[in-house]
């Protein structure tokens, strides 16, 4: 027995070895007690043995038994069990569900064919419950993120979000209802906006969704009707007081002439014709070059102020200029100027906010220079990976599963910022035409 424990210690670590020793001793002591009982009271000993075997079989079949009971009287059970107790029900079903979703691993050497599954702490939270546990050998949080949809279906919850609180650990957060399922009105702009945390909407955990603009470039990708306009307008509205004080300027390229025409006076510069749009980006590149020359040796980062404002280059439908433009010369001029702004603008107070429907490489050539990437509803998981980075869809950024329905899906997005691989799920505030008109009337210069 000790030899076997030593083998387990060497191959699987101390805890499986301790578990094995405890189990082995329980078996030995239990067998001796039972034998003594058998020789004194044979009938009682045999009854005890049968009862133990039945209990063991029931315990092993607990997931299956629960499933049968659920199928038979599920509605009645649901009606009498309060939310809090549901957590314990899910915990009870967990071994079976873990096995069915491929999250189990064969247990320690010598323990037969039994399976190991994520243990950990289960606790209720407002609007759901959370499971935090140590990953089994050979697992990563991605294994759990990949099956978050089946888990949500089986647990009958709106969503299961997966992340990792620390190396070697996984956290599954199940939400009874989705806090982002109903549209959110764009918040009123903060009277003193902070370019390091602009309020754009709400996060899945109920907190405010803020994004940093200083030192960042933002890429917003989404299929038609996914809500790109609402993300862009949320940024512009959040900046509005700074636009009024002339500390920030928004320069807009609007090839479709629909989305931003109504923002007229809010934009320091606006262009809709191909030549004008290219000239506007060249002007931004020139500004970057001038600032670089002026600041060389004096300061490393630009500080926005009146007379030397922070500039946001707001480009709607980037693909129009990078891929669909037929004039090759114009296209090259645009690509060169945009590359200058993207590579040097961050420290020099010029940021890019670009929206795109089709995130292929040809349409977003310098994708890696966008430090904050926002994926609204997209058509395929491969597009999610193109926008948010390889493996993002597997890590839980299911932008391809966001509903097409405007009320329940438009404006919902997954966001990834450089340096943080965990996608955040958010919903942008929605600005109606009246909200836009009010913002222009109140803050335009
Ligand atoms: N944040 C939001 N919350 C709720 N509904 C929204 C939100 N954003 C957009 N919508 C709804 O979705 C519709 C389409 O939104 P929007 O025009 O912003 O999408 P888009 O991605 O810019 O589309 P396109 O590529 O066709 O311009 C809007 O008319 C509105 O009804």
UniProtKB/TrEMBL annotation:
Keywords attached to this entry: ATP-binding, Membrane, Nucleotide-binding, Transmembrane, Transmembrane helix
Protein name: DNA segregation ATPase, FtsK/SpoIIIE family
FtsK domain: residues covered: 181-385
Xref: PANTHER family: DNA TRANSLOCASE FTSK, SPORULATION PROTEIN RELATED
Molecular function in Gene Ontology: ATP binding; DNA binding
Binding-site residues for ATP, renumbered to this chain: 222-229
Pfam families the record matches: FtsK_SpoIIIE
Transmembrane segments: 43-61
Gene3D superfamilies: P-loop containing nucleotide triphosphate hydrolases (3.40.50.300)
